[in-house]
């Protein structure tokens, strides 16, 4: 078969162009260029069909936290496929992997986040959240408390519901988003939007837009606020220290549920199990996916508080997915969590990898093309800027320089993503200091080629 006995690269690319529609891609242009065919991966390195060894500084899509090629994961999946490959949890049945995973997540999640509703992805989990918070308030006799507030440039998924929660205008331009009842306030991106304010003042001003919006709509109309502890796809927007405490205060004051979208930040990325812990947030609901299984199997979910669960549990919540709590995915996620804990991967992030990345990127800050570095744990972005010491953007199309730099990274066998003119890094959490040195050396070469 094509899988076990690869065709030559150009034939694979031709078949790909003929039959495969890629997400978030201009498929016609991609078809002409030919997509790079990734054939295998181990640790932090990908191998393509031409034998290049590529350092994956994006951990796939911010998800392969334990690194590629872990034998234990494949064994657990194979065992579970034989024992019980599938069963649903809709009609008064359950199974061992989903019970074990829900209990484990309740143990790991902070505060009274003790209940998990499973989904197949982050998008599905955020769709769940949208329906869950509205159902919560309806159950409490306040069906009009249904509006949800999010941020501009947020990313919460690609389905109609989660894409509406997201604040990406280029997504809203296609396919009828956002749906009614969802509102977007400023993102706490000091570099791009802070003007003359200090980061601290700007953080407070952004958070206070939430209160303004709540008062405009009426607190009795607002169900929830959703935010990523650190906006990932928006460009690794690390909020000023004043931001999250003020958001938390406003949500409490106006009885608005707080949803922390931990799809990227969860499972160690920021140096704690959850980004909420890094930023001192006590959410009512956390969205999880990606690092939950390190991308080895598609699984996501919503971890909710005792209070939210008790209200939702008192009615029939008519919501769920065929693959909610899929046994193979749940078993794989559990094994992933075992590896994260037993190998002290979060300590490694905090004490070894994040400091090494910080040191390497601080050296890159001298580069004439680099404006600033944004970083939280092992997620970071390099802001490209035309004038040293100024936050002015490049003239012409935003993102054009970032695109060139991304291509130059590719030429260096380094996968970095660009969001506008920010170069994104989110490597597997197991990356070693020596591998970080390789990453930084290749990144510098790509910056040099772009300058
Ligand atoms: N939420 C955040 C913060 C994300 O970064 C993503 C994906 O990148 C999602 C939700 C959507 O997750 P998925 O792609 O699994 O649907």
Which tags fit this structure?
7-stranded mixed sheet, 16% strand, binds pyridoxal-5'-phosphate, alpha/beta, 451 residues, Aspartate Aminotransferase, domain 1
Textual characterization of the structure:
Strand 14 and strand 15 form a beta hairpin. This protein has 451 residues and is of the alpha/beta class. The strands form three sheets. Strands 4-10-9-8-7-5-6 form a seven-stranded mixed β-sheet, sandwiched between helices. Strands 1-2-3-13 form a four-stranded mixed β-sheet. Strands 11-12-15-14 form a four-stranded antiparallel β-sheet, covered by helices on one side.
Summary?
The protein is of the alpha/beta class and 451 residues long. The protein is built from 17 helices and 15 strands. It has 2 domains: 138 residues, Aspartate Aminotransferase, domain 1 (Alpha-Beta Complex), CATH 3.90.1150.10; 270 residues, Aspartate Aminotransferase, domain 2.
List the helices and strands and how they pair.
Elements: H1 9-19, H2 27-33, E1 38-42, E2 45-48, E3 53-56, H3 59-62, H4 71-83, H5 96-108, E4 113-119, H6 122-139, E5 147-151, H7 160-165, H8 169-172, E6 182-185, H9 190-193, H10 199-217, E7 222-227, H11 243-253, E8 257-261, H12 275-279, E9 285-288, E10 300-305, H13 306-313, H14 327-342, H15 345-364, E11 370-376, E12 379-384, H16 400-411, E13 414-415, E14 417-419, E15 422-425, H17 433-450
Parallel strand pairs: 3-13, 5-6, 5-7, 7-8, 8-9
Antiparallel strand pairs: 1-2, 2-3, 4-10, 9-10, 11-12, 12-15, 14-15
Helix pairs in contact: 1-2, 4-14, 5-14, 10-11, 15-17, 16-17
Pfam family, one: Aminotran_3
Cofactor: pyridoxal 5'-phosphate
Keywords: Aminotransferase, Pyridoxal phosphate, Transferase
């Amino acid at each position: 078969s094509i899988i076990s006995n690869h065709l030559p690269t150009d034939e694979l690319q031709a078949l790909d162009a003929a039959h495969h529609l890629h997400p978030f891609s201009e498929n016609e242009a991609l078809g002409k260029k030919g997509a790079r065919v990734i054939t295998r991966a181990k640790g932090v390195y990908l191998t393509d069909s031409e034998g290049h060894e590529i350092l994956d500084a994006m951990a796939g899509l911010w998800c392969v936290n334990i690194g590629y090629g872990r034998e234990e994961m494949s064994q657990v999946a194979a065992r579970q496929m034989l024992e019980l490959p599938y069963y649903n949890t809709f009609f008064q049945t359950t199974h061992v992997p989903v019970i074990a995973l829900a209990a484990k997540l309740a143990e790991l999640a902070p505060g009274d986040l003790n209940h998990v509703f499973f989904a197949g992805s982050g998008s599905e989990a955020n769709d769940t959240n949208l329906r869950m918070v509205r159902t919560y308030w309806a159950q409490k006799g306040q069906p009009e408390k249904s509006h949800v507030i999010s941020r501009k440039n947020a990313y919460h998924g690609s389905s109609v519901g989660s894409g509406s929660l997201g604040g990406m205008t280029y997504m809203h331009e296609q396919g009828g988003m956002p749906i009614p009842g969802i509102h977007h306030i400023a993102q706490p991106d000091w570099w791009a939007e802070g003007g003359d304010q200090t980061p601290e003042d700007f953080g407070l001003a952004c958070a206070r837009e939430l209160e303004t919006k709540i008062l405009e709509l009426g607190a009795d109309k607002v169900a929830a606020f959703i935010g990523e502890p650190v906006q990932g796809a928006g460009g690794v927007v690390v909020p000023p220290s004043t931001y999250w405490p003020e958001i938390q205060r406003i949500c409490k004051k106006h009885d608005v549920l707080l949803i922390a979208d931990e799809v990227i930040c969860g499972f160690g990325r920021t140096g704690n199990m959850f980004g909420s812990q890094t930023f001192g947030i006590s959410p009512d609901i956390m969205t999880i996916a990606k690092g939950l299984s390190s991308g080895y199997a598609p699984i996501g979910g919503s971890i909710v508080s005792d209070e939210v669960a008790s209200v939702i549990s008192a009615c029939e919540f008519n919501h769920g997915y065929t693959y909610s709590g899929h046994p193979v995915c749940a078993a794989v996620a559990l094994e992933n969590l075992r590896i994260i804990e037993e190998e002290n991967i979060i300590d490694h992030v905090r004490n070894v990898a994040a400091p090494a990345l910080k040191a390497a990127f601080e050296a890159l800050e001298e580069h004439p093309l680099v404006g600033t570095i944004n970083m939280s744990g092992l997620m970071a972005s390099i802001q490209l800027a035309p004038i040293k010491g100024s936050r002015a953007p490049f003239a012409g199309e935003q993102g054009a320089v970032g695109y060139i730099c991304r291509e130059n990274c590719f030429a260096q066998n380094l996968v970095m993503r660009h969001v506008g003119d920010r170069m994104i890094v989110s490597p597997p959490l197991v990356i070693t200091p020596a591998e970080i040195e390789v990453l930084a050396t290749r990144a510098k070469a790509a910056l040099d080629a772009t300058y």
